[in-house]
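Handout, page 2. Input:
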Amino acid sequence: MTESRHVEMFTDGACSGNPGPGGWGAIMRWKGHEKELSGGEHKTTNNRMELTAVIRGLAALSRRCKVELYTDSQYVQKGVHEYLAGWKAKGWPERIKNQDLWKELDTLLQKHDVRLHWVRGHDGHPENERADALARAAVPKLR
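Output:
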């Protein structure tokens, strides 16, 4: 039997205007190793960037992992814990904002054993501050 990989993941999204240019950041930690991921979009929303950070972090995992996921997004936290099961049971009603991302996240959540933790943003949590810095740095500049 192979040993399960235990990963810590810290994610954040940022947007300059809402909608506007936005960025996302993720920090992944496994057995003393760290990897940082980030990216951005020219026209997006803060909530889309929060979801994208989680999605890109989980998608970067090459095999099933136990993931301790930390986010400052109540949108992501409540969506996963309170709404996702109901949306699926109702056949994904069209009124759901960011449905494309929620479906992608749902698929990834089934591939991993994820425990989601909410942390207060901009409250001195070192990894959350780093994920925020990655997200802000990835916001495309207006041209």
